[in-house]
Amino acid sequence: MNNKSKYYLICFALVIITTLTISVKIVIAFGPGIHLVGTDIEPGVYRTTGEITYFARLSGLTGEFSDIIANEGSPQPPVLVEIKPTDVAFESIGTGQWTKIDDSYQPEPTTFFSGGWWLVGTDIIPGLYRIEDKVNYLARLSGLGAEFQDIIANDVPPNGPVVVEIKANDLAFHSETDGIWSLVDESYSPQVRSTIGDGYWIVNIDILPGVYHTEGDVLYYARLSGFGNEFQDIISNAILTSGSTYIEILENDVGFFTEGGAQWSRLETDLKASLLPGILLLLDE
Fold first, then answer.
1. Predicted TM-score of the model (pTM)
2. Is the confidence at residue 83, as pLDDT, over 90?
3. Residue 85: helix, strand or coil by DSSP?
4. pLDDT per position as a tens digit, 130-189
5. Distance between CA atoms of 249 and 84, rounded to whole angstroms?
6. Euclidean distance between CA atoms 267 and 36, whole angstroms
7. How far apart are CA 254 and CA 196, in angstroms?
8. In terms of DSSP bridges, do strands 210-214 and 98-100 run parallel, antiparallel, or are they unpaired?
9. Of 252, 253, 251, 247, which Cα lies nearest the Cα of 266?
10. pLDDT tens-digit profile of 15-57?
11. Cβ neighbours of residue 167 under 8 Å, at least 6 residues apart?
C-alpha cells in the first residue's frame, strides 16, 4: 500500500469515528429502559410525574442483586431521584418520562400537596403540615439517592390524623397517600376535643392539656416536644399498655401520639386537686 492510499484510509477512519462520536448524544430527558450514566444520560436530579413501576440506580450491568445501589417499586408520582456521577447505569420501568431538574425548574412553592416526592423550599414551603387521610409512609429526606442514609426521619403512621414538621434544612419530603397535606397556620382552628383516638394531636389546638384516661389496650403512646418524627421529639412514651391507663399531657407539650385503637378521654376534674384531701388526711395521721 502506497502512502497516498494510507492517507485516504486514515481520513476515512477519522470520518467514521467522528460520525459515531456525534451520533452518541447525552440526554437530560429519557423514558423506560437501562441508560448508561455519562454516556446516555447526564448525572443529576431527575423528576417524573408519570407512572413508574420500578427504578434502580446501578453499579454494574450483570443483572445481579449486588448491582443495585438503591431502588424503589411502584412509587407514587411525582418522583425524584438523584443519579450520581459514580453510578454506572439507571433503570426505569413504566411509562413515565424523566426530566433533569435545572435552573429552569422554578415552580411556585405551595402549602397544599399530595403524596409523592417534593423539594422543600422549591415545591413546598417548610412548616407544620397535617393530613386526615391514611398515610402509608412518610419521610423527611436529606438526599434523593433513594438510600437509607438519605432518611432524616420516617414513619408508617396508623389511621387517624398525621402531623409532621417539614424543616427548612430538609432537602425533600416523601409520602405515600391519596390525601392532601395542608399547612397548619392561623386558619387552622378546629373544635377542641375531649376524647381522642389514634393519631397525632396538637396540644392547645386539637386537645387541651390535662389528665387523659383509657380502659383500652394501647400499642404505643408518646408525649411530644415536636413533630419531626425524631427520637429527640419524645418527652415520654410507653408501649403495650392494657387495662386502665392515665397520662398527663402538660401545657408546654407540643403534641400527643397514640396508636392501637384505644379511646382516650380527658378528665373534667383536676386529678391533683381531687387527691389533695386524701394526701392531707394521711399527713395529719
1. 0.86
2. yes
3. coil
4. 999 999 999 999 999 999 999 999 999 999 999 999 999 999 999 999 999 999 999 999
5. 46
6. 64
7. 16
8. unpaired
9. 247
10. 444 444 434 578 899 999 999 999 999 999 999 999 999 999 9
11. 120, 126, 140, 228
| CA-based nearest residue to 56, from 85, 25, 76, 81 | 81
C-alpha separations of 198 from 238, 260, 265 in Å: 14, 7, 12
Is the C-alpha dihedral spanning 104, 108, 109, 115 positive or negative? negative
What are the φ and ψ backbone dihedral angles of 284, each rounded to 5 degrees? -65, -30
Helix (H, G, I), strand (E, B) or coil at 150: helix
Q: How far is Cα 166 from Cα 234, in angstroms, rounded to an integer?
A: 17
Instruction: Count the helices and strands in the chain (H runs, E runs).
Output: 2, 24
Residues 6+ apart with CB under 8 A from 128: 163, 164, 165, 166, 183, 184, 227
Rounded CA-CA distance 58/78 in Å is 21
